[in-house]
Amino acid sequence: xxxxxxxxxxxxxxxxxxxxxxxxxxxxxxxxxxxxxxxxxxxxxxxxxxxxxxxxxxxxxxxxxxxxxxxxxxxxxxxxxxxxxxxxxxxxxxxxxxxxxxxxxxxxxxxxxxxxxxxxxxxxxxxxxxxxxxxxxxxxxxxxxxxxxxxxxxxxxxxxxxxxxxxxxxxxxxxxxxxxxxxxxxxxxxxxxxxxxxxxxxxxxxxxxxxxxxxxxxxxxxxxxxxxxxxxxxxxxxxxxxxxxxxxxxxxxxxxxxxxxxxxxxxxxxxxxxxxxxxxxxxxxxxxxxxxxxxxxxxxxxxxxxxxxxxxxxxxxxxxxxxxxxxxxxxxxxxxxxxxxxxxxxxxxxxxxxx
Length: 355
Known about the structure:
The protein has 355 residues and is α+β, with helices and mostly antiparallel strands. It contains 10 helices and 19 strands.
């Protein structure tokens, strides 16, 4: 993976001479290498990745495009970057205003021997468009999650707690090759399923419950994200009606999704189905968000999302209906946005499963 030239294009006509990446996620994007410490420096003349003794050997073997250097004991990263700025005669350097805390941004601004300017959304826009290697990793993560889902269905039954199912999903995804979880799995049942981001509890699953599972894993740094709602034993007419409404809303959003379309129009296509069914007030979040090295990236598909979806982004499709005191339903896939539509990267079935 060599992203130096893609990153260097950001220097063209930009109000800065050099780019300094200090956040863990953007360092990984730039170099393809995961480390808890380091800094990437990029100018028109140089591309350098500094890290410490713990990672230096592995980084030299793995990083392509950046010259890997060990920081050395007693030397700070800002001192190393200042040396590079002086070599280049760089007067301005861009910092990641969107990824750093205010304290970190202020500290770096004060330490560098150059005027610092905010990077803005330039890198986020670049990261939004996935290349083939990134898509391959996302799909691999999704297949791991789907395998875990197919197996955990055998363990969902009355008497098993939400926490037990969440733990089992975690184990299965790690067992099948995940590096980690994209986020802590959400497993909620019965009345708890009306909480979109409910936390798994000791509540035992009961006959007649909906069980909503929102989970995903990381493979080669990239996240997957999926949600499935299943029923235990039987469903009422209302449960079936709500499930069908959510599924039809998701399908409407998927049919509308394509490159160049503002995310709010995709959201509106799904939201219209839910509103027409009489559940408009029960859908309080957006249709979806982008996924990549982070579980929530931009752009997104929500009522206020005016930014056009770029070809090559990965967008979740996750409408839901939540009825407090009763139950909730959410169904989530991941979509690869292309010029004339989208490709659904999720293969798990989404017809209502009654266990």
